[in-house]
Amino acid sequence: MSTDTQRRLAAIVLADVAGYSRMMGLDEDGTLAALKAHRNAVDPFVFNAGGHIVKTTGDGMLIEFSSALAAVQASLDVQREMARRNATLPDERRMRFRIGIHVGEIIADDGDIFGDTVNIAARLQEVAEPGGISISQAARDGVHQRIEAPLIDLGPQELKNIVAPVVVWRVDMGGTQTDALQAAAATTSGERAAVAVLPFDNMSADPDQDYFADGISEDIIALLSRTPGIRVIARNSTFSYKGQAKDVRLIAAELDARYILEGSVRRSGQQVRITAQLIDASNGQHIWAERFDRKLDDIFEVQDEITGNIVARIAPEVLRSEFRRLKERSPEQLSAWELHLRALACLHQATEAGFLQGEALCRQALELDPSHASSWRLLSQHQYQLFVYGFRKGSAETWNALAEQAGRAMRLDPADPIIAAFLADTLSWTGKWDEALAQSARVVSDYPLLMHGHHTRGNAQFLAGEHVAAIASFEIGLRMGPSSPDNYQFQTLTAFAHYCLGNYGAALSWAEEALRAVPIFTQALGMRAAALGQLGQTDDAARAAERFLEVFPEITATRHCRNFRWRRQADIDHYRDGLVKAGLPE
Predict the structure, then answer these.
(1) Is residue 267 domain-shared with residue 305, that is, in the same domain?
(2) Which domain holds residue 435?
(3) DSSP state letters, 462-476
(4) Mind listing the pLDDT tens digit for each residue in 187-240?
């Protein structure tokens, strides 16, 4: 063992997918794509509870928590979310995690953990029911009367390769998926808004490490400031609180912020631990927290990675809260910036009424401030969605008008990376695919931590026919921002890329993932039908086509594809063929 070996108490969680090998044998691409999609949805529950994913092995995860309560609560959240996601799937496509939890001393060495505690958690996972949680007596003692779910005593159990019997408790999930769905639906979030990033505390023995802690804070401020719709308090204001032990609610009042992000850095040799937490300043409650343990092989690379992760996690939460806050106010009371935010919320409704309302709000914002660059960009986005959904007929003139609006936004604010990314999108829409590839490559190069830049890159690659590269770009973006409200679009584009490569099972999985978020998204409805058509699943394909026609009664395969701006006509024909096979009118 290395000299960095440590012993500590921890709550250990082992999870795997019941029947995963069978599912892989039936459909490798579709099963892998579905697992990735599920992980994108459930990993935030682990991180928000302070969990650290030590490693993954195929369908399995080894996770460390600081307490049994955090481990069990996160596992409950994961199982409830999986029950919700599985509820709409046929039985053979449902993924059910088995989870085992034990508390005890572990040995940490070279980024991995060992010991009887890990072994017992693994055996508890093996005896757990699919979709269930089994915990040891030690874990039970840490959560008794502290969680709502009942605990059922299964008595001492002989576990494989464990010397002494282990008392096993089953966490009662409620018995049915309906109960789990109701529990998940009961979860709500409080109102939140603008962000103040306080200087991260240096918890290391070496005061010279202040530069690293300050660098993390400064990078978060810089990157968060580039996120459209989020107000970020300037560095000069927040750094005046460095070293002060002051109530965050008072700091928030002084800075006019409703979000406070604070954290700490602890470095020992080549190991660093960074924690970050988001606080609702109205009540002082923690609403998000995460811990990062890294080796400092490249200090700047680690700094960039952690900064990007933190911003990607908190930005969607702030935006969703802003949407809720502004929804109750009359448009006549709003500034151009606030009108822009409300229009952004309309974009995520993914309905004709939402796009039309967003278009009107953008025009109202531009009447107040004709130089508001982000509103010019968002105006084009609403109009683009009206074309893509088929609510409005596109033409060469309308596509060029969108490009002109994007160019105007770029001239007004050439330093905005979101506008630079949007310009790449409009170049693709107008058939300038090589220029779009070059522009999107510049965005990723200049802003590697910007989630939207990777999605823009993937979009340009897909439309230009570079499907393998597009899938890789979308995976990076989805991994950086697993809770972004725009993800349904990029999940659908991932499905299209797989479809064009002939990976129909994977295409179907990604399309279904998008439809869970937005059940009427045109492209995802079409992709589900086309993938089923190509898979030869006649009955399911017919039902998918019927659902498509329910949402869009006058749709035909030709009409659906007419606004596609793809470089390869063969890809469009391939997609249209799948729609017709599913039963959509030609």
Answers:
(1) yes
(2) 416-484
(3) HHTT-HHHHHHHHHH
(4) 223 333 578 888 888 887 777 678 778 888 888 887 777 666 577 887 777 887
